Amino acid sequence: TWAPCSRSRLVSVLTENSSTITELVLLELSNHPQAEIPLFLFFSLVYLVNLFGNMAVIILVVIDSCLQTPMYFFLCHLAFLNILYTTAVVPKMLFNLLASKKVISYKLYLAQTYICPFMGAAECIILAVMALHLYVATCHPLQYLLIMTWSVCAQLAVGAWSVTFFASVVPLYIAIPPFCGPYVIDHIFCEVPVLLHMVCGDTSLQETMMVIGASDTLLLPCLLLVLSYLHLLVAVMTMNSAEGRKKAFSTCSSHLTMVTIYYGTGMFMYMRPKSLYSAEGDKLISLLYAVINPALNPLIYSLRNEEVKSALGRVLERWTVSQAPRIQ
């Protein structure tokens, strides 16, 4: 068993046993031991909101036929991504907040190293696809049903997942070499920009591969987003109906809020020079896009969406009627 000890002691223990290491120290928020219990309670609540909120979105779309449209099809993909992403990160983070032995197994380390970039990149592309859908729905409403067929939606979804895999997982597998000791990760989870500080020797190749992968999954989707929203802005401003403009702005603002938070933090994390690395700052940024943002997605998309609230009301009404005792 391990007793609580200083970071220097953890470093020396791992350095001495680096040849047979099966786990790594994951410091997370151990620099603030007095706040670990409040943080555990807070992040547990955030994780539950994320799980139940995103699961509720998926279930609601499945059981309510009025929500079975391309927009909510992509929203289900986003909700599914949010659940997987946070499940890969948060349970271990919560466990380590209360544990004296703050470590991560080598297998889980590998899983987080590959799963987290994959899920993060997939979310970037799904958000861009959703922006493209909004553009078609707003700027070409008469051709909407002809353009956004279920076949096209399925192809976009499959393409998003496929591009993400080849743009994030494959370069990562090629570029990341073995690490040197000490095997101490001063971060919330195993994330590539942080892991590069454990690489032996020159990391210019790894940094270049990371920027190339980020360009494919961040910059190109961001360019598509910008173009889509420029056309959306022009289309909305030329609408004659004030009610139509209000509805369009409401839908776009929800999506744009998520896009701004996610893309902004992601670009700073993956496309900045290594010299700008800051352990505490990176932890805060990672918490925003890996923990907080996924929990906000269902709240922003649902609480500001009349269609979702109406569908929820219909489902609750049907459930209440089904549970009521039958009149003999």
Automatic annotation (TrEMBL):
PROSITE patterns: G_PROTEIN_RECEP_F1_2. Gene3D superfamilies: Rhodopsin 7-helix transmembrane proteins (1.20.1070.10). Keywords: Cell membrane, G-protein coupled receptor, Membrane, Olfaction, Receptor, Sensory transduction, Transducer, Transmembrane, Transmembrane helix. Residues 53-301 form the G-protein coupled receptors family 1 profile domain. PANTHER family: OLFACTORY RECEPTOR (PTHR26453). The chain crosses the membrane at residues 39-63, 70-88, 108-132, 144-174, 218-236, 248-272, 284-303. Its main location: membrane. It is a multi-pass membrane protein. InterPro entries: GPCR_Rhodpsn (IPR000276), GPCR_Rhodpsn_7TM (IPR017452), Olfact_rcpt (IPR000725). This is G-protein coupled receptors family 1 profile domain-containing protein. Pfam families: 7tm_4. GO terms for molecular function: G protein-coupled receptor activity; olfactory receptor activity. It comes from the Eukaryota. The keyword Transmembrane helix applies. It is found in: Cell membrane.
